[in-house]
Amino acid sequence: MKRALYVLLGLAVAAALWEGYKAVGNPDGTVLFGVRILPRADDLSMPHLWTVLERLGRPELTGGRPVWIVVASACLFTLGITAAGFVIGALIGLLLAVAMERFRIVERGLLPYVILSQTVPLVALAPLVAGWGGTIMPPWAVVSVIAAYLAFFPVAVGMLRGLQSPSASGVELMRSYAAGWWRTLVKLRFPSALPYLFPALRLAGAAAVVGAVVGEISTGTRGGIGRLIIEYSREATSDPAKVYTAMLGAAVLGLVVAGLVSLLELPLMRHRRHVEVVTL
Amino acid sequence: MSAVVVDKVTKTFNRGRTDEVTALSEVDLTVADGELVSLIGPSGCGKSTLLRLIADLIQPSTGTVTVAGQSAGQARKEQAYGIAFQQAGLFEWRTVLRNVELPLELRGLSKRERKARAEEMLTLVGLEDFAGHYPAQLSGGMQQRVAIARALAVQPPLLLMDEPFGALDEMTRERLQSELLGICTQTGTSTVFVTHSISEAVFLSNRVVVMSARPGRITASITVDLPSRDDAGRQSPAFFEKITEVRQALRGTPAAAPPPRASEGAAAGTDAR
Amino acid sequence: MKWTRAVLPPVIVGVLAIVAWELTVSLGRIAPFILPAPSAIWKELVAQRQNVWEAALASGTNALIGLIAGAALGILVAMAASRFKPLTEVSIPFAAVLNALPIIALAPILNNMFESTSSIPRRLVTAIIVFFPVFVNTLRGLREVNPIHQELMRTYAASGWTFSVKVRLPGALPYVFTGLRQASSLAVIAAVVAEYFGGLQTGLGSRITSAAAFTAYPRAWAFVIGACLLGLVFYLTTLLLERLAMPWRTRLIA
C-alpha cells in the first residue's frame, strides 16, 4: 500500500518536472558548443500531458477506432507474444539449471556460454531471425523466440544458484535417508530454490517484454505495441501526442507483466524471504 | 581511582511497550586498576548489555557508569578503552596493518607514528609477518588476534572484550588466553571480559562476576588467586576448586564462600536442594 | 591443472557447437536466410573488417559515453538517497517499477526531442538504461553496513563523514561493481539496439538491419559478431577495473 503511494508520488514529481521544463525550457532546446544538450520544449517534441491523455480518446485517423482501443489491442497482442516467450524461456531455463546441477560437466561446459550470452548483445540477432517468419514458423512465433531468448537467462542462473543453495549438511541428511537424486531434488533442492526462482522470474518477465518489443520492431511484425511505437513516431511531426500514447501502452504492458509474475509467487512465498539474484 | 565504576544501573529495553524487558536491575560493579574481571552467566543475563553500557554503546535507564573518573560518554570520545567482539569485525578492504592503524588514524596520528605503533601491536600478537595480508587470507584465530591488536593500538587503560574467543576452537582459545594474559600484565591494562566458559573465566580473571537472568543481576563475585597462570596453573587443584565454586554460583546453590546478596536472602534460603 | 579443468570443457563445447553448426548447414542444405554457415560468416567478417571496426567504434563510443554518464548519475543519486531515509523509501519501489518498463522504447521519443541526426538520443537512452542497475546496487551497498563496524566506529567516536568515507563507501564498492558489471553489458546492448528505432545510423545496429534488409545474412552475422566482441570488451574491462579497485577480494563474481 505504502509502496503504491510512493510510486504515485514519484509519478507526480515526474509529471511536474515535465510540465515545469516545458514552462521554462527553450522551445528550440539548449545548444552548447553546437550540441543540443537540453531537449526542445515546444509542443511538437514535448506535448502537454493532457494533450496525450486527450489524444487517447480521439480516433486514430478520421473515422477510425479511438486510439486507446488501438493501443490496448496492440498491447494484448504483444502480451500474448510475451507470455509465449516467457513460458518457453522459463522452461528452458529451468531444464538447463537442473541439467547443470545434475551434471558437473554440463555446468562446466555450458555456464560460461550462458553468462557470455548475456554480456554480448545477441538481441542484435533479432533482425536475422526475421527470415524465419512465414517460412519455418509464423511471424509472431519468431518474436516469441526472441523474447524467450532474453527470458531464459535469469531463470537458468537464478535457478542454478537456488538448486545449489542447500547446505552440505542438508544434502548429507537426505543421503542418510537413502533418498536418490530425484527425491533430493523434489524434497530439498526445489523448495530451497524458490526464493531464488521468483526474483529471477521477475527479471525474466521484464526481459521478455523488452524482447517482444524489440523483436516486433526488428522483424517488422504487425499488430503489436512495438510496431505501433515505430508507426506513430513517423507521424510525430504532424501528430506529436500519438507516439506518447503508444509509449504509455508499452509502460502499462511492462507493469501488467510484472504484476502477473508477482501473482505466480503469492501462494508459495507467503512465509519466505527473497534472495537477491546477481546474474552477471 | 578505579578503572570502571557501575553504580546502581538499571537498563530496560522497549520501555512502556508490551515487550518491555529489564535486562539489568540495580547492578553495582567496580573494576580496580590493572584488574581483570570476567562476567559470566547464562544467555540473557545481561552480561553483554553491561559491557556495552561501559562502552557507552547504549545508555543506562537509571544509574551512572564512570570510566577512569569520567562519564562513559566522555571516555568513549577520548578513546579511553579498546574493544573486541566475538566476531573479529575486520574491515575486509584494509590490510591487516591498516586495520590496526584505523583507530590511530581517527586519533589523527601521523602516518609514521601509526605504522610504527601498529607494527608494534602486531608483534605483540605475533602477526608481524602478516601485516600486508588481507583479512580474508587469515584464519579465524589470526583474525581475532588482529582485532585484539586493534583494540590495544591506542594503548587504552581499559580493555573491553565481548566473548572474543567464543567462535574459536579449544586449542586456539587456550593459546590466545595465555597471549592475552601476557599482554595485560605487560601493559598493565584493566580488562572486563565477557564469556560463558567457566574455565576461561577462572583462568584469566582476578575476579569472576556471576550473573543471573530475568532480571539481569550480579549474584556472586568470586576472587581467583591461582598459583600461576600457565599450563601448570590449569592443572592446579586451586584452579579446579574455583571452577567448582563458579559452577555452584551459576546454579544458584550456596557456595562455600557466601556470595554477597542484597535482597535475595529469603529466596536463596529456600533454594538449597 | 585447475586452469585446464575450468577452460577445457567450454572450449570443447564451443568447438563442437561450431562444427555441428557448419555440418548442419552444409549437409542439411539450410538456406542462408535461416542460418548461414560459420565459414560464410567468417569470410564476410574478414572481408568487412574495416566496416565492422568503424561501426563498432561508433557504437562503442555511444555505449561508453552513455555508460559513464548513467553510472556517474546512478552513484551520485544513490549517495544522495542513502543520506535521506524518506528518499530511499520512495526511490526503491519507484526504481523497481521503472525497471519493469521497456525503456529502450524511449528511443524514438528522444529522437523527436533532440534531433535524429545527433548522437545524443542513443547516448541518452543508454545512460537511462545504465542508471537503474548502478543506482539500485549502489543504494543497497550503502545501506548494508556490518553492525560490528557501526559499533566499532562509535567506540572510536568517529563523525558521520568519517564513517561514510572509511566504512560506508568501501563497503559498498562490491555492490557498485555488481551494478557496473550488469550496466557494462546493458550499455552495449542499448547502444546497438537503439538504432533499430531510427535516428543517426552509423553504428552496428543499423549495419545489421541494413544487411538483413538486403538479405546479405552472412554479412549481418559478421556485424553481430562485431557487436559480441564489443560487448565482451566492455564486460572484461569492467572485470579488470573491479580487480584493480578491490585487491582484497579473493574471488570475482561471488
TrEMBL record, chain A:
Keywords: Cell membrane, Membrane, Transmembrane, Transmembrane helix, Transport. It is found in: Cell membrane. It comes from Paractinoplanes aksuensis. Its main location: membrane. Pfam families: BPD_transp_1. This is ABC transporter permease subunit. Residues 75-265 form the ABC transmembrane type-1 domain. It is a multi-pass membrane protein. Belongs to the binding-protein-dependent transport system permease family. CDD domains: TM_PBP2. The chain crosses the membrane at residues 67-98, 110-134, 140-160, 193-214, 243-264. SUPFAM superfamilies: MetI-like.
Automatic annotation (TrEMBL), chain B:
Keywords: ATP-binding, Nucleotide-binding, Transport. Pfam families: ABC_tran. One of its GO terms (molecular function) is ATP binding. Residues 249-273 are annotated as: Disordered. Residues 4-238 form the ABC transporter domain. InterPro entries: AAA+_ATPase, ABC_transporter-like_ATP-bd, ABC_transporter-like_CS, ABC_transporter_ATP-bind, P-loop_NTPase. Residues 262-273 have a biased composition (Low complexity). PROSITE patterns: ABC_TRANSPORTER_1, ABC_TRANSPORTER_2. This is ABC transporter ATP-binding protein.
Automatic annotation (TrEMBL), chain C:
Residues 52-242 form the ABC transmembrane type-1 domain. The chain crosses the membrane at residues 12-35, 55-80, 92-114, 120-139, 183-200, 220-241. Coiled coil: none annotated. It is a multi-pass membrane protein. Belongs to the binding-protein-dependent transport system permease family. This is ABC transporter permease. The keyword Membrane applies. InterPro entries: MetI-like (IPR000515), MetI-like_sf (IPR035906). Its main location: membrane. It holds the Pfam family BPD_transp_1. It comes from the Bacteria. It is found in: Cell membrane. It comes from Paractinoplanes aksuensis. PANTHER family: ABC TRANSPORTER PERMEASE PROTEIN, ALKANE SULFONATE ABC TRANSPORTER-RELATED, MEMBRANE SUBUNIT. Keywords: Cell membrane, Membrane, Transmembrane, Transmembrane helix, Transport.
